[in-house]
């Protein structure tokens, strides 16, 4: 849309008030329902419990020493923990003031934390400020903070003192609107990943809530429109989020929060939800889950992911194709360690009164742009899931993981992806692929003559065959270009996932062809389960006497268990195991290895 057309729409927009959130304008009635309805009982209990924890706690200081830790050591957690605790105080005090308006202590707490946040030197994280001038920097969390304060100002209305309304407007103007229009351009304005949606969406949403001048609002929305187009370019028509399910929740979530406000204020004239690609992205969540809360956690994603129930239910009102997730895997109020306001409040105001299913339905999808095969099967024996990927080694939040796969059986993940590690300077620096969770050494892929997969777009899989659905799903990949090993002429990996029986089974076959025989060749399989070596097989034990038996070419391969430790996303040391299958003798010019993965029920 041209800027002139956008300005004409802006001049005819709906007012920015609580009717954007409560169609009948009855804020008091809505929050009374939330407080008293059994539907919201667990969420309300979590908020009340967090309020009790925080009562009497001082707002944590963001000291100079904490701010400079990242520059000195590359560690982020020291500053980010108190920073996000301040956001938790903001969210909790505001939600309690809406749930219990008669309690003056809540609005007093709101005023104190807003004042403290407005006094912060910067709303950015030290890891994101770089060498640019701090006042002009806009990162994920400065943009989110401006959006949160703008929305809170709108929702609380005259319950918030005029001084704080004024302070919020001044700070959002100084930290977001001014720099956005007059500084930059920022790297995220042309990004094709979550930064584009979160930063531009938050600035745009804040502008729709705060700005009265149609010219300035049109300028901002016009810029946001361009960045959102870049964001959508990061998805193929299959709607897959290459950054993983967590970043779908995050980036696409903020896209939706912005698009919703834009659609409401423009009376439906500006509607991103009309795009077919947006509908495909909305359906990614139900395809990504292998069962329960376990996802195909390729890239920097957690193995188990909770859903933002409000976001999921909202998308279900837009698209009939969107499947409502199981309520059992909803994100609790305290789960988001970043304490983001926008999803927290929408988990309440967007929640559907209809209870969801207890488990995902069976599903089988091949996502051709991402080159992911993702399936789940519900049988009398439980829920089973399998996912494998091709792609390339230059994806957003990339891991060198061509041919990687994940295998789930009745809530035990037997073959795992390590997912996201602890975010440090090095994690996003030159040594990124020395980290097990990022380099191919921490994935279920071959290691050829001691060499791992290469990073970069040139390391790419070629899909030779892909079929999803029915009793067998198949994915066959040419992984030759993933390795820089010159004598390697061809490497293909084939998966066959068979689901006709009560207990599904997986077969994986790797075929190697070399110009010259390598000195060593090893197949690595990655798990968090303690492997047990048995005659002719490896056993992984699950819960309740269940397990997975791995059969292999006993004459050609010799198994060995290696133990490794890495730092997970929360800075906790976690042990993983490599099931390393070495060639029994010197490998030849042509090698073929077959692995059978058989679920067991005793």
E-strand count: 21
Ends distance: 62 Å
Mean pLDDT: 95
Q: What is the overall number of helices?
A: 17
Shape: elongated
Structural class determined from secondary elements = alpha+beta
CA gyration radius, whole angstroms: 25 Å
Uncertain spans, ≥5 residues at pLDDT below 50? Answer: none
Strand order of the largest sheet: 11-12-13-14-21-18-17-16
The helicity comes to 25-40%
Content of β-strand? 15-25%
Q: Outline the biggest β-sheet.
A: 8 strands, antiparallel
Could you give a quick summary of the protein structure above?
The protein has 17 helices and 21 strands. By secondary structure, it is α+β, with helices and mostly antiparallel strands.
Notes on the structure:
By secondary structure, the chain is an alpha+beta fold. 35% of the residues lie in helices and 22% in strands. Strand 19 and strand 20 (573-583) form a beta hairpin.
List the helices and strands and how they pair.
Layout: H1 3-10, H2 27-36, H3 41-54, H4 64-67, H5 69-73, H6 77-99, H7 104-118, H8 126-129, H9 140-156, H10 162-182, H11 194-210, H12 214-233, H13 245-265, H14 276-282, H15 284-288, E1 289-291, E2 294-295, H16 309-318, H17 341-349, E3 363-367, E4 372-379, E5 382-389, E6 392-393, E7 405-409, E8 412-415, E9 446-448, E10 456-460, E11 462-467, E12 472-478, E13 488-498, E14 505-514, E15 521-527, E16 531-534, E17 537-541, E18 547-551, E19 557-567, E20 573-583, E21 590-600
Antiparallel strand pairs: 1-2, 3-4, 4-5, 5-7, 6-10, 7-8, 9-15, 11-12, 12-13, 13-14, 14-21, 15-20, 16-17, 17-18, 18-21, 19-20
Helix pairs in contact: 1-12, 3-6, 6-7, 7-10, 9-10, 9-11, 10-11, 11-12, 11-13
């Amino acid at each position: 849309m041209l800027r002139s057309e956008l300005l004409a729409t802006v001049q005819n927009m709906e007012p920015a008030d609580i009717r954007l959130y409560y169609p009948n304008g009855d804020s008091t009635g809505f929050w009374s329902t939330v407080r008293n309805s059994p539907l919201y009982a667990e969420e309300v209990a979590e908020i009340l419990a967090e309020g009790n924890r925080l009562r009497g706690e001082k707002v944590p200081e963001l000291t100079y020493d904490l701010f400079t830790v990242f520059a000195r050591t590359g560690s982020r957690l020291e500053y980010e923990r108190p920073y996000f605790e301040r956001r938790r105080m903001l969210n909790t005090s505001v939600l309690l003031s809406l749930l219990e308006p008669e309690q003056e202590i809540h609005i007093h707490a709101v005023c104190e934390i807003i004042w403290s946040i407005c006094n912060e030197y910067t709303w950015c994280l030290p890891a994101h400020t770089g060498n640019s001038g701090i006042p002009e920097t806009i990162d994920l969390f400065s943009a989110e903070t401006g959006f949160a304060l703008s929305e809170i100002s709108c929702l609380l209305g005259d319950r918030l003192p005029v001084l704080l309304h004024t302070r919020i407007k001044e700070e959002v103007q100084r930290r977001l609107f001014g720099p956005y229009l007059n500084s930059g351009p920022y790297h995220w304005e042309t990004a094709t990943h979550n930064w584009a949606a979160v930063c531009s969406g938050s600035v745009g949403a804040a502008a729709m809530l705060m700005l009265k001048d149609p010219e300035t609002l049109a300028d901002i929305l016009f810029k946001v429109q361009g960045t959102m187009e870049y964001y959508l370019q990061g998805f193929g028509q299959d709607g897959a989020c290459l950054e993983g399910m967590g970043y779908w929740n995050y980036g696409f979530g903020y896209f939706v929060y912005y698009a919703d406000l834009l659609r409401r204020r423009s009376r439906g004239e500006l509607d991103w939800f009309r795009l077919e690609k947006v509908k495909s992205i909305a359906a990614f969540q139900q395809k990504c889950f292998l069962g329960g809360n376990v996802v195909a956690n390729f890239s920097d994603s957690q193995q188990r992911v909770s859903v933002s129930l409000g976001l999921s239910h909202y998308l279900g009102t837009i698209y009939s194709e969107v499947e409502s997730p199981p309520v059992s895997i909803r994100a609790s109020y305290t789960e988001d360690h970043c304490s983001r306001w926008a999803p927290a409040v929408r988990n309440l105001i967007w929640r559907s009164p209809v209870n969801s299913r207890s488990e995902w339905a069976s599903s089988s999808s091949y996502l051709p742009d991402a080159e992911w095969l993702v399936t789940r099967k519900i049988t009398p024996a439980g829920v089973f899931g399998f996912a494998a990927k091709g792609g390339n080694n230059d994806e957003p939040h990339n891991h060198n993981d061509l041919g990687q796969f994940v295998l789930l059986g009745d809530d035990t993940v037997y073959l795992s992806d390590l997912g996201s590690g602890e975010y440090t300077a090095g994690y996003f620096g030159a040594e990124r692929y020395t980290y097990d969770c990022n380099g191919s050494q921490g994935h279920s892929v071959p290691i050829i003559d001691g060499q791992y997969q290469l990073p970069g777009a040139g390391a790419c899989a070629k899909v030779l065959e892909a079929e999803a659905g029915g009793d067998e799903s198949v994915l066959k990949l040419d992984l030759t270009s993933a390795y820089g090993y010159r004598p390697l002429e061809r490497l293909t990996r084939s998966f066959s996932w068979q689901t006709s029986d009560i207990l599904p089974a997986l077969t994986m076959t790797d075929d190697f062809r070399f110009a010259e025989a390598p000195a060593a060749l090893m197949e690595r399989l990655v798990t968090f389960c303690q492997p047990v070596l048995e005659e002719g097989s490896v056993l992984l034990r699950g819960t309740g006497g269940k397990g997975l038996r791995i059969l292999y070419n006993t004459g050609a391969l010799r198994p060995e268990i290696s133990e490794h430790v890495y730092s997970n996303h929360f800075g906790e040391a976690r042990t993983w195991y490599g099931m390393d299958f070495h060639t029994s003798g010197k490998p030849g010019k042509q090698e073929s290895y077959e692995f059978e993965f058989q679920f067991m029920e005793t």
